[in-house]
Every structure is written in C-alpha cells, then in structure tokens.
Amino acid sequence: MKINTDLLHAHQLHARLTGDYTPQAMAHISPIYQTSTYILEDFDTAVYLNQHVDQGFVYTRFGSPNCDELEKKIAYFEHAEAALALASGLGAISTAVMSVVKAGDHVVFGDVIYGCSYTLFAQVLTNLGVTYTRVDTTNPKSVEEAIKPNTSLVYVETPANPTLKISDIKAISEIVHSHKGITLIVDGTFASPYLQTPLDLGADMVVHSATKYLCGHGTVTAGVIAGNKARIDRCRMPYLQCFGAVLDPFAAWQLMQGMKTLGIRMERTCENAMKVAKFLESHPKIDRVYYPGLESHPTHEIAKKQMHGGFGGMMSADIKGGMDAVRIVMNNVKVFSLATSLGNVDSLIQHSPSMSHFDMTPEERHAAEIFDGQVRLSIGIEDVDDLIDDLDQALALI
Ligand SMILES: Cc1ncc(COP(=O)(O)O)c(C=O)c1O
Fold this sequence. Notes:
The protein is α/β, with parallel strands linked by helices.
C-alpha cells in the first residue's frame, strides 16, 4: 500500500488475521501498557526471559508493547531491519554514538548541527578521550580529507539546524564505506522519514528527535534510531539499558497517534513553508532566507535530488538590524509562538544564536552563518495567509 495508508495501518495486529481475539488485539487503538514490570509465568520463564529480553516483556526499561509497536513502525518507514525508541532525540543520538565510539577514536561531524549534539561531541566525548574534526559536510571532499586512521564515526545532520544546509548522504556514504570500520549516522529530524530515507542512500543508522515532526503536536519528547538488527541490538543492550533513556509507554502511544497524520501534516507544512520563504525572500527588511526549497539556497540541487515530496517546514531568516530587530519581531508576532522546538502543527519562532546554538562560541557561530539577526521559523499547518500577515505586521514595526 502507499505511505498514507501505511501510516494508519502498518503493523496493526488484526484479530481476524492473527486469530487473537483478546481485548488487547481487538482494540482499535492499542492499549497503553502503563506498567513498570510484568508478572512472569514461572521460575524457568523468569530465568529465560531475563536473559532473552527481546523475546518477551519483563521490565519496561528492557522493552514494552507500546515501544515495540512504535519500533516496528519506525523500522518500516525508514526501510530498516530494526529500530529503537528512546526518551528524547538526544537520548537517541547519544545512545547511537556511544554504541560506535570508544576512547582513542576520532569523529567527523558537520560544522552546522543542533547545539546539544555539538556539545555531546565537543565536551562530553572529548572528556572521554574521543577527538573530532568539524567540517562542511555539504562538501563530501571535506569529509574525505578529515578522515584519519582512527576515525570510527561520521555524523551528518541533514537538513542542518538552523541554516538548512543539505549534505549529500549517498556521496558521503560512498566515501565512508570506502574506508574500513567507519559508521555513518544521519540525523534526519528536519525531514522526517516522509521526506527522506537515509538508509536507502547508504547511511548505517538514522536518528530522529521524534519530539518534532514524528509526533507533530508537541506533546512528548522522544527519539528513535533505525538501522540493521545487529546495530540496533547493540544500541539496546548495553547502551540503552545502562544509560536508561527509555521511552515511557504513554509517550510511545501518543507518538503513534501523531504519526498517523505525518503525511498530510508534512504536505501542508511544505506547501506553507515554500510560500512563507518566498514572501520573506522578497521582503525589504530581510537580508537572507535559508530554505532548501528556494533556488537561492546553496544546496537546493542536493535537496531536490535527495528529499522526496517537499523541502520541509523549517527555515531561517536574517533580519536587517540584527538583534534589536529580532527582539521587535519576536515580541510582536501573534500567530507564531516564541518557543524553541519545531515540527508542530502550529508555527514557532526562535532565535538560534541565543537559544538552540548558544553553546557554540561566537566565532564558531559566525563561521557557521548563524548570525545574531537570525530567526528560525518552524512553519505549521495554519492558513498560510495568516502566517504571512503575522510576519509582515511584526516586520513593519522595526
Ligand atoms: C536536528 C535535531 N536533532 C536532535 C534534537 C534533539 O532532540 P530532543 O530535544 O528530542 O532531545 C534537536 C532538537 O531541537 C534537533 O533540532
């Protein structure tokens, strides 16, 4: 079936197909298994299941029916053998990364990535004896040149937060896999699996902040990892088990309700975003718009090749007049909410240099084109004229 049908029906256990007529199997919407532990049949089962946690439910940190259903859906949409649900996007990123790197290794990652992902590499892993090189991953040659004999991970965020740079996953994967023992992880949060499937392009693992488009309604923090079964098993045990970034069953359940409308949300979001981007690009108080759907975006051509069905709902814009002008706009928008996060049905506005990317030094931000006068917009599914009018009236106050 096609993707919008699959989003509603994938992996539902129909009683008529399975012969299972228990209320759990008959429920139109899966029940929530809000329990921390499971009663085990007898002593021998308890011993067996504790040692084979993928074969039954024992304890919610080891797995739950809600996370299991979510993981099967994510694996399906990412064209992966397996997937893992976690308590946040950073839970997914840190778990995936820790499953690959060890002390003495070297990591290559993009000069423009989400602020806390940068902090994970630049502070946390550095303290554990892992070195790194930041490169412009939109230029695959820079990735190649940065690889050292002890490189074990190349980490790419595409589209990148907040300047929406697009990296060519296929070209990078060919470089990475021409070397032995290097893993390519792609953070595809800004695109969601609806617009981009990195495993098809050669990535070894894809991670998402499911807090964003996958959920779509801003009601949970969650993360997912997808990849082959051996990699996902290793992420689950020992890394997820020991770090404990486990997704709560109710959060998994809410996420699955949100995922049902991913397709129509993304379609409307992409359509709205293109109109807002074009409006801003022609506005006299805007210096530059960063949206991969615009021909003026430096990586528009890669976006066209790599993303399917649209360019997403995220964009940034440099407002003339710097931080003072930003303050006026952010204090006067009425439809946009001043909030970090993204990918919700309603539109949000934030200031990347002081919010999502404040951990970077001013020099690093400048080199990454994250300027003081830059706002990041997450475009929702409202009537687009209201979004444009809202930005227009706020910009007029500068
Ligand atoms: C691209 C990207 N990856 C990961 C994250 C982290 O996700 P979470 O807040 O769910 O931990 C974010 C958060 O904004 C993000 O923008």
